Amino acid sequence: MTGLILQKFFDYWRDNQLLKADRVRYISLMVLIFASLSTGIWQGLGIPLAAIKAITEVCILILLLSVFTKEINWKALILIVPLLCISFIGVCGALLEQSEGTLSAILFFRDMLKFALLLPAIASFKQRNMLIEKAVFLASVFFLIQPVISILKFFLIGVDESYWIGTMHQTAGELGVLAPLFAICFLVPMAFLRSFWWFTVVVAFCVFCFVNEKRLGLSAIPITMFGMLFLHLIQDSWRNFKGIDKLSSSKRKLYGGFIISLLSIFVIYASALIIPSLNIDEKVGGFFNYRHIISYHKEYLTRDYEDPLNNPIENIEFDPGIQLGRFKLINNSFRYMANQPTLRLLFGFGGSDISTSYLLGGDRTDIFYHKHQLRGATPFGLRVLIETGFVGYLIFVFWFSYISFLLIRNIFSLNESRSTLAICATGMHLIFFFDSLFYSCATWTNGVLTPIYFVILTSILFGNYNIADFLFFRSIKKLSNQITHSS
Q1: Does the structure show a pLDDT above 50 at 483?
Q2: Residue 352: left if φ>0, alpha if ψ -120 to 50, beta else—which one?
Q3: Mean residue pLDDT across the chain
Q4: Is 464 in contact with 132 (CB distance < 8 Å)?
Q5: What is the Cα 86 distance to its own chain's centre?
Q6: How far apart are CA 378 and CA 48, in angstroms?
Q7: Contact indicator for 399, 437 with CB cutoff of 8 Å
Q8: Of residues 151, 288, 293, 166, the one with CA closest to residue 217
Q9: CB neighbours (10 Å) of residue 18?
Q10: Between 380-411 and 81-97, two packed helices, what is the crossing angle to 10 degrees?
Q11: How many CB atoms lie within 10 A of CB 278?
Q12: Taking residues 363-377, what's their average pLDDT?
């Protein structure tokens, strides 16, 4: 398979139809997608994460050259103006508030915008249709091999959230659930529009989630599947209202809903058995008890520093294992900011105030606690809140909400490809929204799923919805056909 991919890569490079300017962009985009989705491999080989990040950032820099030419897509650039405003607030705060002001400002600007700038960059490609199709093809390959790697991991390592999150990462365990949710947003519509056999791939990604020990999957996977079904029902209801043929029959929808219900039961039961903390016996294959699952989740999400799930409170000053639950951390962070002086409340403590980057000097792994006495699994939205205040946070929420509105509006398109891609992109975007505000920094700053997220976002927002008649599906179909013919 690897040889086939490389062959297609170089065949495309030699394509005389590809403009010279876009050849460089093509190489940069493909290297960016490849590096982002194979980060875990390079980490496993001992290559520092900083080196991988440097490669991705160089690729982004090359892609951004299009922004500074007459080819710039101004509509795409306008879409990220809210993020530019957040960056401006953070940069000004860093320069005014922090001793390492200049470096802090640069790092915040980079963290906030480096992937978002892909939106105007890719939208400015003259031949973006071909380039996006190839990028999605490569991403499809990587996504399809993740469940296989998780099965190997189960037999070689066992159930663990700290190592080999597929090929994607070695330490960002959150990807163990975010990647399956990302994939499900495309696989469920694919099952309704192509074949219910694609639900077997959904099951494979559920296993990926279990092996990577992600408790969130127990609730998030069923919610995502039913959410995608709901969007499909809205899509077909609109088409019926407009007198256009539905994409699936009522019987097919009912059958699909039944399959999703069975899969949801499977996910809840299997995750409780496989993930030790979700069963009473605290081992793989333990006893299922729904009361234990409910009480554990409640305690895990709302725990204070002094809680049985934490280490002894006496060690709180130097033990990062003593944390607040996610809900408790979010609640305490908002209360903490609400009690700050007016300027701090509005504009925060300055960009990179709680950044863990080693470039700012010293040991910053527990900087959030040392500065603000807050510690826990910190979503990127909380970092925006602390560093840019309520003004920056509300702008951040507005940006996600506005992009959601644009995507949902496309669901009501009469063009089948545009409408279907909009469903998938809406689900994908809402997962990024959820992660950034409530769960982690994984989608926004780790740069694993972020590049392909902005590629797909560009494809639906800037008229590339008809690439290969729903490009993600065709990319998988092309891969299957090419492998069959090559063998």
Answers
A1: no
A2: left
A3: 84
A4: yes
A5: 20
A6: 23
A7: no
A8: 293
A9: 17
A10: 170
A11: 22
A12: 88
CA distance 343 to 294: 41
The residue written with tokens 């499809």 in the block is 140
Which comes out higher in pLDDT, residue 248 or 272? 272
**% of residues, the chain, pLDDT over 70:** 88
Cα–Cα distance measured from residue 185 to residue 438, given in angstroms and rounded to the nearest whole number? 19
What is the rounded average pLDDT of the residues 161-168?
85
Lowest mean pLDDT among 126-135, 238-247, 399-408, 478-487: 478-487
Distance (Å) of CA 85 to CA 90, 385, 399, 405, 469: 9, 14, 11, 20, 36
- State how far the Cα of 189 lies from the Cα of 260, in Å rounded to an integer: 12
Give which of 348, 349, 360, 388 is closest to 107, Cα–Cα: 360
pLDDT range class, residue 465, cuts 50, 70, 90: low
Cβ–Cβ < 8 Å for 91, 389: no
Give the tens place of pLDDT for each residue, 386-421: 999 999 999 999 999 999 999 999 888 877 778 888
CA distance 460 to 378: 30
Range 431-455 burial, b when 16+ CB lie within 10 A, else e: bbbbbbbebbbbbbbbbbbbbbbbb
Q: 368-388: buried (b, 16+ CB within 10 Å) or exposed (e) per residue?
A: bbeebebbbbbbbbbbbbbbb
The rounded distance, in Å, linking the Cα atoms of 356 and 368 is 9
Q: What does the DSSP 8-state code read for residue 78? A: H
Distance in angstroms (rounded) separating the CA atoms of residues 411 and 424: 10
Contact present, 54 and 16 (Cβ < 8 Å)? no
